[in-house]
Design brief:
By secondary structure, this protein is an alpha+beta fold. Helix content is about 15%, strand content about 40%. The chain contains 1 helix and 6 strands, in the order E-E-E-E-E-E-H. It is globular. The termini are far apart.
Length: about 130
């Protein structure tokens, strides 16, 4: 399936906290500056007409959780899990999110330039 997204998505991992949506915390699986996908190990009462305050506790950086306002665009319940695609609305932490996405993009570009391999200079013999 062709990806028609405007913004580049990055695989990532974070805890998603939204008690008004689901009683258990979810797991973020990918993110862009415009949205993210989260999975919850429980059924969720998803209202696609509603905006939700969501905390995203990033695993790559040690910082306060991102406080985002998001609207579910789609949801699917299968095998006891609820997957939800969120659109991020203008939020308190939009600027922090933009910096985080830039960091992910820079990391990806750095890995692409190196060919995805890590060079261990301590193991080289000259």
């Amino acid at each position: 399936m062709k990806n028609h997204r405007i913004s580049e998505r990055f695989d990532d991992f974070a805890r998603v906290v939204c008690p008004t949506l689901c009683i258990v915390n979810g797991v973020l699986t990918d993110i862009s500056k415009d949205g993210f996908k989260a999975e919850f190990n429980a059924p969720c009462d998803v209202d696609v007409e509603k905006e939700y305050e969501v905390q995203v506790r990033l695993s790559r950086i040690n910082a306060e959780p991102l406080e985002l306002l998001a609207r579910p665009m789609w949801n699917r319940f299968r095998d006891g899990k609820t997957s939800i695609g969120f659109l991020i609305l203008h939020s308190k932490d939009t600027a922090r999110l933009d910096k985080y996405i830039k960091m992910l993009r820079d990391e990806k570009n750095f890995d692409d330039e190196r060919g995805g391999l890590s060079l261990d200079t301590d193991s080289l013999f000259i």
